[in-house]
Design brief:
It is built from 20 helices and no strands. By secondary structure, the protein is mainly α. Helix 2 packs parallel to helix 6 and helix 12 packs across helix 13.
């Protein structure tokens, strides 16, 4: 007697297992993403080390004379503005908007212009030069750009020509960049979901996330299990100290949103009475000269901040770490001076991110708030301030909370930091409805569409990263 046919459900399950576990195409994609995660991790570590050395060089300049930046920074900013006014225009700014735009528009020419290897290598080099000249910029956003570019190039090189497949490579590369830059694997995962993808895509928690984890493992293996700002044992029990959550949430939301709107500027219009619109018009008309002016203004701020015993150059990492560790008696005005330095650096249009500088501003804000609540744990309020301002700027509360917690290896502050990040995001959304990275990305897309229209190319609105996919289809 012959055996009965397999049950249809078992047949379907066996077919799915064959497709998922044994199909050569699936393993090719797995190895490509995992190997790419390792490469991104190594690139991020090299970039971090080089950034430290670059800023050491600038400190050597300051050691000669605190007035030297007045001479070198205008020339350096002008040179960076000139270098990025042509084919390297895609290297300007943070790099995160470029990744978001590349995810939204799957056209090969557009993605190549934003994520090609020459672009991401130039991004690293020019960001390092900016740090060596004292610009108030971070390396984390550029690391996201570099990670996405590396993954995109790997995907293309290995024959993954489908736009949706390449979108997954870009997404994994961006998340891996954050994971390795901060040595925070969980933050990389949350950032990729919340900031880059904007949705929890079907099968997102599979191979793409393992690529992010591989980058984090590389960082942990090379640099060790260290906390970015050092381990902090701060606590915020219920009581009077929770006034700091409300106050930091308000200040972080308002300050972060205003900072975002200030660096976004508006469309250039010389006839407008809006100061930001007139600033945009000046930058559009004299980009190199305007950048030189920003460099000079930043150098003047640096001299002023030195008078108060604080430094506003570079990423702000050292100042933020000292505030978190309660070893730095920063002046009340540190946060304001660092905020102005960040604005000037971004207005100049030079390559560089805002993650670390925003954390430094938040630390300064928390330090100022702590002076109003002398009975509360100062380090705890500084942590809350960091998370609040970062959430206000990015409007990514989960990413901001996870980064703040992982940077200090602190588990006891989960509730107050989550609360302040959500509060800051809610307030910021009232002032700046479109998050800053998304707004910059939309400008890149609009510029691309205007160019296409001028060239007579039909403009389409594809959706390369659907929120859902048929349950029976495996992504290619």
């Amino acid at each position: 007697m012959s055996a009965p046919d397999d049950h249809p459900a078992r047949t379907h399950l066996r077919s799915r297992l064959d497709d998922e576990l044994f199909a050569p195409a699936q393993w090719k994609r797995r190895f490509a993403l995992w190997g790419g995660g390792v490469l991104v991790g190594l690139a991020a570590i090299a970039f971090a080390r080089a950034s430290d050395y670059a800023f050491v060089g600038f400190r050597a300049i300051l050691a000669i004379s605190a007035w030297l930046p007045l001479a070198i920074m205008p020339a350096a900013f002008a040179l960076l503005a000139w270098l990025t006014s042509g084919p390297l225009k895609a290297t300007r700014g943070s790099g995160i908007p470029q990744v978001i735009a590349a995810l939204d528009v799957p056209e090969a020419a557009f993605r190549d212009r934003l994520l090609s290897l020459p672009v991401v290598l130039a991004k690293m080099a020019l960001t390092l030069f900016g740090l060596a000249m004292g610009a108030s910029i971070g390396r984390e956003g550029p690391t996201v750009h570099v990670g996405a570019g590396i993954m995109y190039s790997i995907g293309k090189r290995l024959g993954f020509a489908d736009p949706k497949a390449l979108s997954r490579f870009i997404l994994a590369g961006g998340g891996a960049g954050i994971a390795a830059a901060f040595n925070t694997p969980l933050a990389g995962v949350v950032f990729a979901i919340e900031e880059l993808a904007g949705t929890f895509e079907h099968r997102f928690s599979g191979i793409i996330l393992t690529a992010v984890i591989f980058a984090g493992i590389v960082s942990l293996g090379v640099l060790g299990n260290y906390a970015y700002f050092g381990r902090v044992a701060a606590e915020m029990p219920l009581g009077q100290s929770w006034f700091a959550v409300a106050l930091c949430g308000l200040c972080g939301g308002l300050g972060g949103a205003l900072f975002a709107r200030t660096i976004l500027l508006q469309e250039p219009d010389p006839a407008s009475r809006n100061p930001l619109t007139r600033v945009a018009a000046m930058r559009a008309r004299w980009p190199v000269g305007f950048a030189a002016g920003c460099g000079l203004a930043l150098a003047v701020l640096g001299v002023v901040s030195a008078h108060f015993g604080s430094g506003i150059y570079g990423t702000g990492y050292a100042e933020a770490r000292d505030l978190v560790q309660s070893t730095h008696g920063a002046a009340f005005v540190f946060g304001w001076l660092k905020l102005a330095a960040n604005v000037l650096s971004y207005w100049a249009g030079i390559p560089g991110g805002i993650f670390s500088p925003a954390l430094a501003v938040g630390a300064g804000m928390g330090n100022a708030v702590s002076s109003l609540l002398p009975q509360a744990d100062k380090a705890a309020i500084v942590l809350v301030g960091m998370g609040a301002f970062l959430s206000g700027v990015t409007q990514a509360p989960l990413t901001s909370a996870v980064i703040t917690l992982e940077l200090t290896a602190n588990q006891s502050m989960v509730i107050p930091i989550l609360a302040v990040c959500l509060l800051a995001r809610a307030i910021a959304a009232l002032i700046a409805p479109v998050p800053v990275y998304r707004a910059f990305a939309q400008r890149l897309i609009d510029e691309h569409e205007r160019q296409q229209a001028a060239d007579g190319v039909p403009v389409h609105a594809p959706d390369p990263m659907p929120a859902t996919a048929p349950a029976t289809s495996a992504p290619k």
